[in-house]
Amino acid sequence: MDSTRRKFLKIAGLSAVAGIGAPAGLNMLMNKNVQAAGGHGDAAPAAHGGGHGEAPTGKRYGMVIDTVKFHERPGLAEKAIKACHSYHNVPDFGNNKDEIKWLWNERFANAFPDKSHYKKDDDLNSNQFLVLCNHCDNPPCVRACPTKATFKNKDGIVMMDFHRCIGCRFCMAACPYGARSFNWRDPRGEKDGRPFIKETNKLFPTRMRGVVEKCNFCSWRLAQGKEPLCVEACGGTGAMVFGDLNDPHSEVSQVLRTRFTIQRKPTLGTKPSVFYII
Amino acid sequence: MYDAGKIIPGLIVFVGLMLFAIYYNVGNKIEDPKPEKPVGYTSCVLPLEEIRAEHMVLLNEWRDEVIREGKREKVEAGGKMYEKSLQNGCMHCHTSQEKFCDQCHKYASVNPYCWDCHVTPEYGKALGEAN
C-alpha cells in the first residue's frame, strides 16, 4: 500500500511539473521563431529615432510638417485647424481646461521639451508649432486602453472607436503628447446661448459626454483616396506633406530623405509618424 | 393565521396594483407603428424581413468592418451604392429619425443611443451620393 502511494505521488508530481512547464517552454520556442521571422518594431534596436532603418511591412501613414512654411504664411495653421475642427464637429467649450484638440498650436518649449537649450533663437521662442496625434508606431495609448476603443489599424493609424470608449482616460495619461481630449461636458450643449459646436456638420457624428477624442488622420478620407483635411487646407504650399512612410517613392519619404527633420520626444520610444522641419 | 387583518388587505392592495396596468389599458387600441418609407427608393440593402429584424446587427457589423478592418467598400441596393454608415448610409434615404426610427423603437420600448453622437440629416433632404 505504502509503495503504491509513493509511486502515485511521484507520478502526480512529475506530471504537474510537465503540465506547467511544457506550455511555457513551447511559448519560448514559438517566440523565438517569430523573432527569427523578423517581428515588426519589437526587436528593432535602432528604434531610437523611429521609422528609419527597419524593414517596412505594410503601410504606415505619416506626415512632415514644415514649420518654416507655416511661419512664412501667418493664418495658414489656423486655416488647417479650422478645416479639421469644423468638419469633425470638434466642440469649443470656451475654456482651456476643457479644450478639445485634434490639431492645435503649441509653443516650441511645450511641443519639443527635450530640445530645450540655452540661447534659442527668437523665432523658436515666439512662433507657434502645429501639433496633432503622432500616430505612433508603438502607441502607449493603445496599450493603456482597457476596451480596445483605441487601436492601431493596418495602415498604421491610431484609431478611435468612439462606440467603445468608456471614458476612463487611461489613454490620456499614457499619451506623452497631450493629443487626447476628454469631453467633460456634452458637446451638443451650450453655454450662455452659445452652442459648443458652432455649426454641426451633418456628414460626421459628434461625440457624447464622457468620451475621449483625437485626430484620426482622416482615415475615412484616405479610403476615398483623398488627403487629410488639414493637408488639403494647406493647398499646394507643401507645409504639410502626407503619405506612406514605408513607400520609398512617396512624397513624404522623399522629403524625409532630403531634409533634416525632428520628432516630438523621440527618446520615449513611441516612434511618432509626424516629423517636423524646424 | 396571525395578523390576518393586515395581510389580507395588503394582499388585496398588492394584487390590485399589479392588475391596474391591465385594467387601465383594456380596450385601448395600440396603434401599429407606421415608419415613413422614403420616397423614390424601392429596395433596402437587405430584404425587408431581414432588415427589420437584424438592422442593429448589421449596423454593428458595419461599424466593426469600417473602423477596425478598414473595409469601407459601399453596399449595393437597387442599383445604387450606399456607404456602410448609419448617418451617411441608412439616413441617406431614411432622413427622419422621428418619422422612421423612433416609430418602432417607441412601440417596442427600446432606446438605442445612436443619436447621442450621430447627427440626423435635414428631413427630406438626401445626403450627397459621394459621401
UniProtKB/TrEMBL annotation, chain A:
Q: Which UniProt keywords apply?
A: 4Fe-4S, Iron, Iron-sulfur, Metal-binding
Taken from the record, one Pfam family name reads Fer4_11
Matching entries from PANTHER family are given as: PROTEIN NRFC, PROTEIN NRFC HOMOLOG
Q: Which residues form the 4Fe-4S ferredoxin-type domain?
A: 156-185
GO molecular function, a single term: metal ion binding
Superkingdom in the source lineage: Bacteria
Q: What is this protein called?
A: 4Fe-4S dicluster domain-containing protein
Task: Name its species.
Answer: Candidatus Desulfobia pelagia
Automatic annotation (TrEMBL), chain B:
Which UniProt key words apply to this protein? Membrane, Transmembrane, Transmembrane helix
Q: Which SUPFAM superfamilies match?
A: Multiheme cytochromes
Residues passing through the membrane, by range:
6-26
Extract the NCBIfam families matched here: cytoc_DsrJ
Protein name according to UniProt:
Sulfate reduction electron transfer complex DsrMKJOP subunit DsrJ
What gene is it encoded by? dsrJ
